[in-house]
């Protein structure tokens, strides 16, 4: 239990709750859920520029990271087809991967296929089910993809000024503006209460909020004096109580609740908002292909990690289809912007390619 780990090392309840957010982030779990301690470890392992456990902003926004990878690939001869949806994986006479078919009918032949899509899309939508072992298909169908996350992107015309640390007169960003700001995290019991509400189909009345202001470090993301604010909030169920879906009214009601909470910490925030984009779990699934809206392509619980990710006997990036590899967040070691699954999968694929 995460709560036991934090209680062992710390006394301050706000500090424990703030650390606890990284144990439940992206997970339909509470700090009291068994196994939640691993997700915290997952978020603090590794290093950045030699600093252990450090995180960083991508200059130019997260899309700039994708562009950097794309440029590195094309410089080495790769061809990238953007906005070209894959319809299915081409299979040979012996059931091996031979390329992909695009939605416009174009066939791209290849000896190997690496899928960065989720296990659900890769094996339940792109491969004929009769080509896969029945127990494997059942396992993929049973992966827990519940997600509590609603992401809200906000444009503001001035920097938020928090009661705990008011802005300087010149309005320039202060050190705390350049960090991850955790709200509604005064105690782990608050997080547990927010989780409990969602398990009953109700968006949290006092949601956990992680607030980042990337433009405080990267001014090019917004016009002078303005800023972009990223809100990572939970808990919101995929399906609301009574079987109701997320319509525009439900989206805005939840976002208003989040903004009311921020207003309590930073009066004037609501008046500074000039635009917002609300992405509930169904939106994250529809737009980004995240199963259930889960940012990790599946829960990071102990029964879905290590040798069991995405399924027992298939944690080594190879799949039941010869020549088809899984290289995204649904593969070992799981989600997060670290590239470990992709690097590992590439090494396995290269090793196999030498024998073709």
Automatic annotation (TrEMBL):
Keyword Flavoprotein: yes
Domain Amine oxidase residues, every copy: 35-187
InterPro entries xrefs: Amino_oxidase, FAD/NAD-bd_sf
Keyword Protein biosynthesis appears in the UniProt entry: no
Principal location class: mitochondrion
Family to which the UniProt record says this protein belongs: Belongs to the carotenoid/retinoid oxidoreductase family.
Subunit annotation: Interacts with COX5B; this interaction may contribute to localize PYROXD2 to the inner face of the inner mitochondrial membrane.
Protein name: Pyridine nucleotide-disulfide oxidoreductase domain-containing protein 2
Name of encoding gene: Pyroxd2
């Amino acid at each position: 239990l995460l709560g036991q780990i934090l209680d062992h090392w710390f006394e301050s309840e706000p500090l424990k709750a703030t650390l606890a957010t990284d144990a439940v982030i992206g997970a339909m779990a509470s700090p009291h859920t068994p196994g939640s301690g691993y997700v915290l470890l997952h978020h603090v392992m590794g290093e950045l520029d030699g600093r252990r456990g450090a995180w960083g902003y991508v200059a130019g926004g997260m899309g700039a990271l994708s562009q950097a990878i794309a440029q590195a690939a094309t410089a080495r001869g790769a061809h990238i087809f953007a906005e070209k949806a894959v319809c299915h994986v081409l299979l040979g006479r012996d059931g091996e991967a031979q390329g992909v078919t695009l939605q416009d009918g174009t066939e791209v032949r290849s000896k190997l296929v690496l899928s960065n899509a989720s296990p659900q899309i890769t094996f339940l939508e792109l491969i004929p089910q009769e080509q896969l072992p029945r127990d494997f298909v059942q396992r993929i169908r049973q992966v827990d993809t519940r997600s509590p996350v609603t992401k809200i992107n906000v444009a503001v015309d001035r920097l938020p000024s928090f009661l705990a640390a008011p802005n300087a007169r010149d309005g320039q960003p202060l050190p705390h503006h350049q960090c991850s700001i955790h709200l509604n995290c005064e105690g782990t019991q608050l997080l547990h209460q927010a989780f409990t509400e969602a398990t009953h189909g109700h968006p949290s009345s006092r949601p956990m909020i992680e607030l980042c202001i990337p433009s405080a470090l990267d001014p090019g993301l917004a016009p002078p004096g303005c800023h972009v604010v990223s809100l990572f909030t939970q808990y919101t169920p995929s399906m609301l109580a009574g079987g109701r879906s997320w319509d525009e009214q439900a989206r805005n009601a939840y976002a208003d609740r989040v903004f009311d909470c921020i207003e309590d910490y930073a009066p004037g925030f609501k008046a500074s908002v000039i635009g917002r984009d609300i992405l509930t779990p169904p939106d994250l699934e529809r737009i980004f292909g995240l199963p259930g809206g889960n940012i990790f392509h599946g829960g990071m619980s102990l029964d879905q990690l290590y040798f069991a990710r995405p399924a027992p006997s298939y944690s080594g990036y190879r799949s039941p289809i010869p020549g088809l590899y899984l290289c995204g967040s649904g593969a070992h070691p799981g989600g997060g912007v670290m590239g470990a699954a992709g690097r590992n999968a590439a090494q396995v694929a290269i090793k196999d390619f030498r024998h073709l």
